[in-house]
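User: quick one, fold this
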Amino acid sequence: MADKVIVLTDRFIRATDYAVAIHAVQFRKGTSVPYVAHLLGVASLVLEAGGDEDLAIAGLLHDAVEDCGGLPRLEDVRQRFGPRVAEVVLGCSDATDSEAKKDQDYWERKQNYLDHLRLATADTLLVSLADKVHNARSIVTDIERHGVEVLTKFNGTPDQVLQYYVACLEIGLDANAPGALTTPLANSVNDISRSLRAGTDS
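Assistant:
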């Protein structure tokens, strides 16, 4: 049976322009890489895992609420791209206030999000896992370039960072999420774990 054909329309183009505009001055944590590189990567993974245009747009905008304006931003996303996109974007947000997020304990915030993800819709889980795949791959690349010390850029400990991605993988596997996401996430988790063990042993 042939895979369904996904046709991207001008909505996707408008969503890309919107994502570039609202994240224009942001960079990947600890790097000079424009943040939009991550958003485009997530949207690509969503499409490769069988997501449709709505979910690809949600991939582009999955950090819009968390990092670019909170609930007012969510309402703008809803008006521009519809309720399904807005629901997934909200579901991918582990905070709706970027300032309050800074004051919350790393693991408390991550644990709350994991509890939420276990009950999330298939749409939200797919986009969230695409986000985790791209992030985990980036961590592996950063470790290869700079060593495990690069993990200190996160608010949590290296072990907590690894634990979070392990938990995300387990949730994806339990939900029978697409292998196009769980396989690369598992590979990245294994790479991060191996690097941490090597760093401990050295």
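User: anything notable?
Assistant: The CA atoms of residues 30 and 153 lie 7 Å apart.
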